[in-house]
Amino acid sequence: MKKIGFLSFGHWNPSPHSGTRSAADALLQSIDLAVAAEELGADGAYFRVHHFARQLASPFPLLAAVGARTSRIEIGTGVIDMRYENPLYMAEDAGAADLISGGRLQLGISRGSPEQVVDGFRYFGYEPTDGDHAAMARQHTEVFLEVLSGKGFAEPNPRPMFPNPPGLLRIEPHAPGLRDRIWWGAGSRATAEWTAEQGMNLMSSTLLTEDTGVPFHQLQAEQIQRFRDAWTAAGHEREPRVSVSRSVFPIVSDTDRAYFGRESASQDQVGIIDGGTARFGKTYAGEPDQLVRDLAEDEAVAAADTLLITVPNQLGVDYNAHVMESLLTHVAPELGWR
Description:
This protein is of the alpha/beta class. It has one domain: TIM Barrel (Alpha-Beta Barrel). It contains 10 helices and 13 strands. The chain has helices at 23-40, 60-69, 87-101, 133-148, 189-197, 216-234, 254-260, 288-296, 299-303, 317-331; strands spanning 3-8, 44-47, 74-81, 105-110, 182-185, 201-204, 207-208, 242-246, 248-250, 269-273, 276-280, 284-286, 306-311. It is globular, with a radius of gyration of 20 Å.
């Protein structure tokens, strides 16, 4: 069995060719797609976070709303850029959203990716020491993980407005178990090892910020194995989780063929991100029997317990629900995922 969810970037565009023309459309359709995915039997609804862009940004109101409208599906992010975050306020927001959902939050966090503006985190009031914004993201993460543990750290007012429990005070509301449901979006093998050392689950996307010349899925499978080896070496007691993202489009109708038929020839690509070489995974598009054969050869998909399907959200809720249903009906059972 494999958990299968969707990952939406939440794009919106006022163009008449877009089915998602405003920020309100992006938010409300995200909720509707999560509800539809749960009804179809999918396992997760995940949302990307970008600032200064016509995409989903602050995630917690959306996560709380999805939590209130659903009852079973996991709800998460992929990923929150920790360079922009106040870790204590984030812990309050995350705790509230997790409690509303009944403990179904799965938060993917990371250093983040290239953004729409230069050093956007500075506009949010965060100035990295010595210009090292990656280190700042990890520092924010360290604080976030620590306060999620629920340990008291703040000295109480001796004359408070309301009575306090004894001892140092913690961030409220506290969500038990949320610390074990934090994922780090790792773009390299070394970062995956660091993720394991911190006791976070691994979230790996459709790109890696390195290239060794081997196919993307093999490099990602090596990343996953290094993560698992580092997890074992760190001596953590629980079993970790690993997710990978893929673009998968079963072609079962003329509409599917019109949108994605040309993607059947997709291949890995190598490009440049942040001045370094990166390898991008291919899109999977084709008849269901061909997708079964292709996905069966994907070593990283086989190694992960969770598969997140990136969805073209501007094509609307109904079409994206159709994509999920096609995958769950025609592909997943043949691969033993259902």
